[in-house]
Write a structure and sequence with these properties.
Elements lengths: L6 H19 L6 H8 L3 H7 L3 H25 L7 H12 L4 H17 L3 H27 L9 H20 L5 H16 L4
Helix pairs in contact: 1-2, 1-4, 1-6, 2-3, 4-5, 4-6, 5-7, 5-9, 6-7, 7-8, 8-9
């Protein structure tokens, strides 16, 4: 009896092959054939799931995002008591930054997708949707901080969320270039959160 193929697992296998290529040599020159070879499947098998590189990149990003969300949730749930908005933001930003191999690869895939999004409307729409969702999440945490008296009432949560987005993107780029160590990167995040939330724990 032929073995039943788990299509979702096959998609994840392809995504993980893509990540390994991203870590080793970047994605700009990588073809569907390269990813198929890395995944140990034929090009025809890969094209059963992804006919275009953008589709494959988009799925890989979504899979990375889901894994990151699980890690963030686990980090926050492991903390004692109810997490403050500052803590939620710090743990989220720590997961976004390229502080270890998993997050470094995730950022490399995201950069490859961003480059393609500059010239193609389909990945651009997907990238915008993800950025808006993250900014809304940041704004919600800042707004919670205002309601709790931990953030100055005169600050605009939307603008502060945009500043956080710009900060984490800049620090991410510099960390990938090894201008910052992981410790220095988190130090910059902590400095900004201290200014935003004051001395609240």
């Amino acid at each position: 009896m032929p073995r039943r193929v788990d299509h979702e697992e096959r998609r994840k296998l392809i995504a993980e092959a893509l990540w390994r290529i991203a870590a080793a040599r970047g994605l700009e020159g990588a073809s569907l054939r390269d990813v198929a070879a890395e995944a140990g499947i034929s090009l025809g098998q890969l094209q059963h799931y992804f006919t275009r590189k953008d589709e494959m990149l988009g799925f890989a990003l979504e899979h990375i995002g889901q894994l990151a969300e699980r890690r963030i949730r686990a980090r926050i749930e492991a903390l004692p008591g109810e997490p403050t908005p500052r803590t939620v933001l710090r743990e989220t930003l720590a997961e976004i930054l390229p502080l270890d191999e998993n997050s470094r690869i995730g950022n490399l895939v995201q950069i490859a997708y961003f480059v393609r999004a500059l010239h193609d409307e389909a990945p651009r729409a997907h990238a915008r949707e993800g950025a808006r969702a993250l900014r809304a999440f940041f704004a919600g945490q800042v707004e919670r901080g205002v309601e709790r008296g931990e953030v100055a009432a005169g600050l605009d949560p939307e603008r502060e969320a945009s500043l956080l987005m710009a900060l984490v993107e800049g620090v991410t780029g510099h960390t990938l270039l090894e201008l910052h160590t992981p410790e220095e990167a988190m130090g910059l995040i902590d400095l900004h959160l201290e200014r935003l939330f004051g001395a609240s724990a």
